[in-house]
Write a structure and sequence with these properties.
This protein has a 5-stranded mixed beta sheet. It is built from 9 helices and 5 strands. α2 crosses α7. The chain has 2 domains: 163 residues, Ribonuclease H-like superfamily/Ribonuclease H (Nucleotidyltransferase, domain 5), CATH 3.30.420; 54 residues, Arc Repressor Mutant, subunit A. It starts with a strand and ends with a helix. It is an alpha/beta fold. It is 52% helix and 15% strand. 38% of the residues are buried. The radius of gyration is 20 Å and the shape is globular.
């Protein structure tokens, strides 16, 4: 009996809300069940389809683990000397592997250098797990597709909580007009929900600092 773990993330790019990492542990012989259920990469499914599959996946797999990574933790990683977003994701992937203890783990690689990323994760895991590290693993492997669904639904649920408390944020991506407007109006009012290291957030903070500096310069003149 070979136990396989698929791992994927949701929410790398948004300026608002958490990033979510998810892993599923499944017996290799059960993988066809995922296909029969309609499991695919979460981006290829509608919101309703993902939500319908969420509990079905959890009941079908042997175990799962979901990690919610707050904006503050992301910022701390990006301002540290030894981490970036890719390495943070690697650490969370290793945490999932160490918890689920699979024989084989499939990771969707966020780095251009799959060899370096694989080596980095291997140094973090404490189990005898064979790693498969590929780009677009969530599309190629049903195990990773299942993990992507758990991550995406969890991320959406977290965003719904934020919207209930703070108002319409949009999806949280800097390119979205609703998110841009919300960011402009709330970046200083509700700093806890934003990723401060994102350029879209920093530009508002920098603009305020420049405005204060200009006012001070006019004052001393």
């Amino acid at each position: 009996m070979t136990l396989i773990c698929g791992i994927d993330e949701a929410g790398r790019g948004p300026v608002i809300g958490p990033m979510v990492m998810a892993g599923v542990l499944i017996e290799e012989s059960y993988i066809p069940k995922l296909k029969a259920m309609g499991v695919k990469d979460s981006k290829l499914l509608t919101k309703q389809q993902r939500e319908a599959l969420f509990n079905k996946i959890k009941k079908t797999v042997k175990a799962h683990k979901i990690i919610i990574i707050s904006p503050k933790e992301i910022d701390n990683a990006l301002t540290s000397d030894d981490l970036n977003l890719n390495w943070l994701e690697a650490h969370k992937s290793a945490e999932i592997i160490n918890k689920l203890k699979p024989d084989k783990a499939i990771l969707d690689c966020p780095s251009n250098n799959t060899k370096a990323y694989k080596s980095y994760v291997e140094n973090l895991i404490k189990t005898k797990t064979k790693l498969i590290v590929e780009h677009k693993a969530d599309v190629k492997y049903l195990e990773s597709g299942a993990a992507s669904i758990l991550a995406k639904v969890t991320r959406d649920n977290e965003m719904e909580k934020i919207q209930k408390k703070y108002g319409n944020t949009g999806p949280g991506y800097p390119s979205n007009e609703i998110t841009q407007k919300f960011l402009e109006q709330n970046w200083e009012k509700h700093p806890e929900i934003f990723r401060h290291t994102w350029s879209s957030y920093r530009k508002h903070k920098d603009a305020k600092f420049q405005s204060k500096l200009d006012s001070f310069e006019k004052f001393i003149k």
